[in-house]
């Protein structure tokens, strides 16, 4: 009994320290979007009331606020970098696919029944595919002056690892205006279209959502990929 108590106390003592050693989503989103809100991500939606406009339509530079779900007990925030269509956007965020990881211009897909962005699926960079989980959201927080600001790693904010961007077009005026240094470092031209694997079939996503929760993440991903190919 004493041994288990000691292990439990050790785990409780190390958890906050671990959280403080890696970059969190909040300071990253605040820097990139310019939305001056502090505190856990799950509080951003309520804090934005009477300070920023809120809504359920994606806009470049807006902050997408995620509701807590499963192990994501503090919610999450991400910044829209580009609107592709009514159901797809590219986002920039931190501490999602891996602790402290920065993911820039990765895909997020609206999988809500009403098309109001109340549930999304998000790209998982380590596996190079869409995440299987459907994530509930509050909606979008719109900054007063939409602008994508450059994020420079700061040891004071924690350790971070930057993943490569999925797709950026150098001669896109909006992209160059948002980050001239980043655009200049890219090849002369990269394809504007997303890779074919990202042409998702929402019916396959719905099928994955309907599967029993006891099934493993690997099984769900395999079913989604298989169903997408067959359709």
TrEMBL record:
Pfam families: CHAP. Coiled coil: none annotated. Residues 1-121 form the Peptidase C51 domain. The keyword Signal applies. Residues 170-189 are annotated as: Disordered. Residues 1-19 form the signal peptide. Keywords: Signal. InterPro entries: CHAP_dom, Papain-like_cys_pep_sf. It comes from the Bacteria. The keyword Signal applies. Residues 180-189 have a biased composition (Low complexity). This is Surface antigen. It comes from Sphingobium indicum (strain DSM 16413 / CCM 7287 / MTCC 6362 / UT26 / NBRC 101211 / UT26S) (Sphingobium japonicum).
């Amino acid at each position: 009994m004493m041994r288990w108590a000691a292990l439990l106390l050790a785990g409780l003592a190390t958890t906050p320290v671990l959280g403080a050693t890696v970059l969190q989503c909040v300071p990253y989103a605040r820097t990139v979007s310019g939305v001056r809100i502090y505190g856990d991500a799950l509080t951003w939606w309520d804090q934005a009331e009477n300070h920023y406009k809120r809504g359920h339509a994606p806009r470049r530079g807006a902050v997408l606020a995620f509701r807590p779900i499963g192990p994501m007990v503090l919610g999450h925030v991400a910044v829209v970098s580009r609107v592709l269509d009514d159901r797809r956007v590219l986002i920039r965020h931190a501490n999602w696919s891996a602790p402290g990881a920065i993911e820039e211009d990765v895909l997020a897909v609206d999988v809500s029944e009403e098309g109001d962005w109340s549930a999304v699926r998000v790209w998982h960079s380590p596996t190079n595919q869409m995440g299987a989980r459907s994530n509930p959201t509050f909606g979008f927080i719109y900054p007063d002056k939409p602008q994508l600001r450059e994020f420079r790693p700061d040891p004071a904010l924690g350790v971070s690892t930057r993943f490569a961007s999925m797709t950026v077009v150098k001669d896109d005026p909006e992209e160059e205006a948002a980050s001239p240094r980043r655009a200049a470092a890219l090849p002369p031209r990269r394809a504007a279209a997303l890779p074919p694997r990202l042409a998702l079939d929402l019916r396959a996503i719905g099928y994955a959502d309907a599967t029993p929760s006891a099934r493993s993440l690997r099984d769900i991903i395999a079913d989604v990929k298989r169903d997408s190919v067959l359709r």
